[in-house]
Give the backbone structure.
Amino acid sequence: MLYMVEMDLPHPSLLDEWHRWYNEHLRMLLSIPGILSAQRFQSIAPGASPFVAIYTIAGADVMTSPAYRAKAGPKSPGRWSELMTNWYRNVLDGLERAPEVPRGGWLAIMDRRTASAPPLPEGFIALRPVALDCSIVERGLMFGREGSAPPAAREEKDCHLRICKPITPLLKSGAAEAAP
């Protein structure tokens, strides 16, 4: 199961500081039981929510656990929560683990925003929101390695495609590294 967070930080002068904070935030989240991996991405084209973090979680109940509530949640970013915009948090079912997208690779995210939106194109892994914001009807993911071409940009009614590059490598919790 995946937990995906997306947002914008429309304050260019603060981006370096924010990235340092966010990378430490990832490590803190990986200390919470049930959060198994994390990786950050940035859209290659301007958009409403160009920054994305994908976490592998053991289940949706991780997001309501006492350990998560004690360390994380909407208030955990502190002052950054007031500066971030277009901030959405979705727990998605349909993929057990987030694959690592290596440096030079890409992540394609196709969101179906309404039930009447066209179906996901072939090659996308279909995910459905099951907890938190449920800000989309369906999300499709596709991952590629360096040298492979991402899907062509296209906009259809109630669909949105983003191509993202990794900001960080895939980070794993101690529990994820111990799992077979």
Observations:
- The mean pLDDT is 91.
